[in-house]
Amino acid sequence: MRFKAQIHNIHTFTKLTASLNSLGPLAWLKLGDEQVCFTIIPEQGTQVWAVLSIDAIFDTYAVQSAANNVINLEVPLGPLNRALKSALNATSAQIRLTKKDNIPLLALTIATTSSNNSYSAFPTGGSRDDGTMFHDQFAANRETIITQEVPVRVLAPDTVSGLHEPQTREPDVHIILPPLMQLKSISDRFTKLALAGAKTSSGAAATRTRLDMAANMHGCLRMSIKTDAMSISSVWTDLANPELDPSQVANGDMGIAEHPSTRMKLLGSADGRSEEGWASVRIDGKDWGKVMSVGRLGGRVIACFCHEHALILYVYLPTDGGEDESVLTYYISSYSA
Amino acid sequence: MDEEDELPLLTAVSSSARQLYLLLRCINFAEKAHVQINEGGLQFSVDEASVMEGSAFISKDLFTTYTFRAPAPQRPSQREIGDSDDEEDEDPDETLPTFQISLPALLETLQIFGLTDTNTSKPPWARDNPASTATGGAFTNNVLGMNNMCRIAYDAPGSPLSIVLTEATIRTTCNLTTYEPAFNEEIPFDRQALALKTIMRGTWLYDAVSELSSTSPEKLTLWARTRGRKPYFALSSSGTLGSARVEFNNTPIRPPPPSNPPADTPPPASNLLETFQLSDPTSTFRASYKFSLIQRAARAMSVATKVSVRVDEQGVLSLQFMIEVEAGKVSFVDFRFVPLVEEDENEGDETQFLGGEGEESDGSVMEDEDERRA
Predict the structure, then answer these.
(1) Quick check: A230 and B172 CB within 8 A?
(2) pLDDT in tens, A271-281
(3) Do A8 and A117 share a domain, yes or no?
(4) A227 vs B contacts (CB less than 8 Å)
(5) Which of A185, A196, A231 is closest, CB to CB, to B108?
(6) Which domain of life is it from (chain A) (predicted)?
(7) What percent of the residues of chain B are helix, what percent strand, and what percent coil, each to the nearest 5?
(8) Strand partners of residue A230
(9) B174-205 b/e (C-beta count within 10 Å ≥ 16 → b)
(10) Domain boundaries, chain B
(11) Which residue of B has its CA nearest to A229?
(12) Domain check: are A214 and A126 in the same one?
């Protein structure tokens, strides 16, 4: 069993682990020949199935195992994220699977030039100019190697064979979301509002906040929350509803004609004032805030609404080539109340 | 809600929610606020256990359109600095719509678009950044006059107060549940019988109060007297950790004393105290209030350009803040406080106090007096 790769996009990898970490502490990392999958299945809340193309993060990637060259690991996201953070200024970083005292580890070897730290580490006392000169001559070429070890657990193929992506029915509405950070700042206010309202009444109900999310096939997204003291809703208009690709839908053009979203197109209006044509879900405000933290990756997000059933978010990571995109899939189930 | 069909009682539109937010934030110390709608604007008032009340008047000048359809003919009520503290227009005429709403919810709504974080974590799409017009150049939403809008509507008694914030392609609608007004009498304040009146800058009062707050005192005492036509004003605090005092010495260049009685002497504008009037200039004025209550007005003090401090013969303190929400437009926020009953008040204090009159020894006299009491 062998795994070794050069990390070429440390920033993306760090942000990715940080946002995944907010949903659950442990991830199932599946290293395959062509892609890398991160899966988080928390006991409660949102599941994430992330499929990354190898180029999105790694370079010179090599994986070998007895089981079709696939390695399954259980990775603690917190320690991995911390290890990656120390590599943010690295000139190069390498990750590999090793063993130490019979414990499997992901070892992160980070090479940095010491010039960044030497101001504080070796105060020169003299003028700043002298210090810089000193760097240029000597310190800039000095390399520091840091090794971070993240203990992991190797998962047998049988263990993970029973894990499948959730099955959902065809969505009623699919829509491209506005920038997630914008969405998050408003949803956070909503959650705060609900908590502020609940404080005055009984304390028991205060812990849960239910956001109502809805969208229609006319470019509208609605987020709302209701408390005793108020009801508030924000409506985004002029968003895009991507067209379905006949090659991706069962039965091709026939399938599209019968697709729920085609029916939803007949209902509702583009100004979002009509009460018809909305597919809505009820989700947990706090959980939603955590999901929104993926916004820092800055990708395009398509939301699929299955009315009163589930909300599925496809977060596409921005890539240079744009050929085989990496996608993070979030499954958020709807609460009945 | 089709306001157009039903001719709502109130429709008010403003290009931003910022002024509203700035004013209402000053009185954000209670869960519920009373709202009264009249011809001149919106009156928000909050009350704390009937010993303190605060109110903010949102004049209709702050809105681009303000349409109030009174349920019954109502004479217009104009407010000026002189009388705006007194809700005399809130006469027993029950036709003026009055209700309660959740104030924290309203404030939270008004800052949905991050109006407050003007300098730090302000997202680029937020609007009404006061700095953005200066620094952001000609292409900010502000300057381009994007369709940013804040619309407040109240349809009919019993319906929610609805606030609609529109910005580019986002529209937020907030319906605040309106509650029956609670029966509460306002704290009586007799403007005809003032014991003390002084006007100063809001920040000076703010500095003084925040200075005193470091010892977390329980009591704030106002001292005022006129000696040799020189006004003297001090704030002292006392609590378990000790006591402290901030003095306002009005001793800049003064014109020769006019022939009027000292109480009416208008000091030059450069003075610390812009106005200083005592009903009885021969004695020392003293009144105490609960410090924690006064502190609730701190937000208003910090943003006010001027504050008028008045105490009536009963000892009720009125703080009236003049707040400039945008260039040239001033609004008023009022607070009233019921005084603490002073147990140790006796004539001896005052005579002792006045007996020590000396031209340059204001502070030392006060200290003597404090030591004697301690």
Answers:
(1) no
(2) 878 888 899 99
(3) yes
(4) 105
(5) A196
(6) Eukaryota
(7) 25, 35, 40
(8) B176
(9) bbbbbeeeeeeeebebeeeebbbbbbbbbebb
(10) 3-176, 194-373
(11) B177
(12) no
Query: In terms of domains, do A136 and A193 share one?
Result: no
Question: Nearest Cα to A310, choosing from A135, A157, A142, A167?
Answer: A167
Contacts of B196 (CB under 8 A, 6+ apart): B222, B224, B277, B278, B279, B285, B287, B309, B310, B311
Q: Which amino acid is at A304?
A: C
Tell whether A116 and A222 lie within a shared domain. Answer: no
Which of B123, B125, B172 is the closest to A233 by Cβ?
Answer: B172
Among A135, A161, A187, where does a domain finish?
A161
Query: From the CA of B154, how many Å to the nearest CA of chain A?
Result: 14
> Which residue has better confidence, B92 or B14?
B14
DSSP 8-class letter at B177: P
Q: Looking up tokens 């260049």, which residue turns up?
A: B253
The ipTM estimated for the assembled molecules is 0.74
Pairing of strands B230-239, B329-337: unpaired
Type of residue at B220: L
Chain B residues in contact with A186 by the CB 8 A cut-off are 112, 170, 172
Residue whose pair of structure tokens reads 């398509």 in the numeric block: A302
Mean pLDDT of B213-235: 86
Question: Is domain B194-373 in CATH 2.60.120.560, yes or no?
Answer: no
Tokens of residue B103, six digits: 């104030």
Question: Residues B295-352: pLDDT tens digits?
Answer: 999 999 999 999 999 999 989 999 999 998 877 788 899 999 999 987 654 444 443 3
Please answer yes or no on whether A192 and B108 come within 8 Å at the CB atom.
Answer: yes
Q: Are residues A269 and A145 in the same domain?
A: no
Asked if the Cβ–Cβ distance from A235 to B171 is below 8 Å, we say yes
* CATH 1.10.730.10 fits domain B3-176: no
- With a cut of 90, say whether residue B274 has pLDDT above it: no
User: What's the CA gap between A219 and A45, in Å, rounded?
Assistant: 27
Residue A300 domain-assigned (yes or no)? yes
Q: What is the pLDDT of residue B45?
A: 92
Are A328 and A220 within one domain?
yes
CA–CA separation, B243 vs B124, rounded Å? 47
Q: Distance from A4 to chain B by nearest Cα, in Å?
A: 39
Question: Hey, what are B243's tokens?
Answer: 């006591």
Residue range(s) defining the domain that contains residue A13? 2-161
- How many cross-chain Cβ pairs, A to B, lie less than 8 Å apart? 66
Coil, strand or helix: which one is A180? Answer: helix
Q: Is residue A167 part of a domain?
A: no
Q: Do residue A64 and residue A153 come from a single domain?
A: yes
Q: Is the pLDDT of residue A155 over 60?
A: yes
CATH of the domain at A51: 3.70.10.10
Task: Read off φ and ψ for residue A218, nearest 5 degrees.
Answer: -120, 30
Phi, psi of A221 (to 5 degrees): -125, 135
Of chain B, the percentage scoring pLDDT greater than 70 comes to: 68
From chain A, the residues in CB contact with B31 under 8 A are: 200
User: How far is B131 from B123, CA to CA, in rounded Å?
Assistant: 13
Using a CB-CB cut-off of 8 Å, the residues of chain B touching A196 are 104-105, 108
A18-47 pLDDT, tens digit each = 999 999 999 999 999 888 999 999 888 899
Report CB contact under 8 Å: A196, B105: yes
- The answer to whether B176 contacts A230, with C-beta atoms less than 8 Å apart, is yes
**Angle, nearest 10°, between helix axes B18-25 and B103-110?**
140
Q: Collapsing DSSP states into helix, strand and coil, what is residue B323?
A: strand
